[in-house]
């Protein structure tokens, strides 16, 4: 149970509140540092309660918004789920992607960071379409195999897998491309799968080519130092 008591103290069961900190990007426990006064909340009974926390790892502030479930004489009960006002930005080696794909996936990441999961999955599909355009039919089949591998490696359950597969490989003509629905959990799986697919499709190859270019450069002359990037 999550609540604020009469002494203005914030309480959360189990392990308290943990999030991916938007500052240090570590999955960290939060300590309440700015709790609204009980008395004032009781007077105004707002629908939502905003609380300031401190990241236990880096000490920077993190703000969460809770739905107020009930106002009682001894405690103000809050919903266990909350909205992160500022989410950690998702990073990816975007520079290795073709321009088209890069722009689409950048927008997908922004949607994810904003917690707009339907928009995120729509942008993931567009990103996937651009990858298929780039790689052709054989590339598409290869990525489908990669997705199967990810499924086995990550032990993704069937419904989540179907949701992710439908986003990435579903037909454009399908009127309901985003079924089963993408919630926060599925979106996080979709994100990891997309990163993996993009890595397989572009990043790995680019890095290999780069490494080989360096090797050729070193072999072609008696340069002993790696050239500056
Ligand atoms: Zn932190």
The H/E string reads: EEEEHEEEHHHH
Strand content: 15-25%
The gross shape turns out to be elongated
Number of H/I helices:
5
Describe the structure.
- The protein has 229 residues and is an alpha+beta fold.
- It is built from five helices and seven strands, in the order ββββαβββαααα.
- The protein has a seven-stranded antiparallel β-sheet with strand order 2-1-7-6-5-4-3, with helices on one face.
- It starts with a strand and ends in a 9-residue tail after the last helix.
- The structure holds zinc ion.
- Zinc ion (ZN) binds next to loops.
- The site of zinc ion has 9 residues, from loops.
How would you summarize this macromolecular structure in one to three sentences?
By secondary structure, this protein is of the alpha+beta class.
């Amino acid at each position: 149970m999550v609540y604020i008591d009469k002494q203005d103290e914030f309480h959360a069961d189990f392990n308290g509140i943990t999030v991916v900190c938007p500052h240090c990007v570590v999955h960290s426990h939060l300590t309440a540092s700015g709790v609204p006064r009980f008395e004032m909340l009781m007077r105004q009974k707002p629908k939502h309660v905003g609380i300031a926390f401190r990241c236990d790892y880096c000490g920077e502030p993190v703000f969460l918004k809770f739905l107020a479930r009930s106002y009682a004489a001894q405690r103000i009960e809050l919903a266990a789920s909350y909205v992160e006002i500022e989410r950690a930005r998702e990073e990816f080696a975007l520079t290795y992607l073709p321009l088209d794909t890069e722009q689409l996936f950048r927008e997908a990441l922004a949607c994810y960071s904003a917690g707009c999961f339907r928009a995120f999955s729509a942008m993931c599909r567009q990103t996937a379409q651009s990858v298929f355009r780039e790689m052709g039919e054989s590339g598409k089949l290869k990525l489908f195999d990669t997705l199967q591998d990810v499924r086995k490696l990550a032990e993704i359950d069937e419904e989540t897998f179907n949701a992710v597969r439908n986003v990435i490989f579903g037909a454009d003509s399908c009127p309901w491309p985003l079924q089963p629905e993408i919630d926060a959990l599925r979106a996080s799986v979709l994100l990891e799968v997309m990163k993996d697919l993009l890595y397989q499709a572009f990043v790995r190859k680019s890095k290999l080519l780069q490494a080989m270019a360096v090797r050729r450069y070193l072999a072609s002359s008696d340069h002993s130092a790696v050239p500056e990037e």
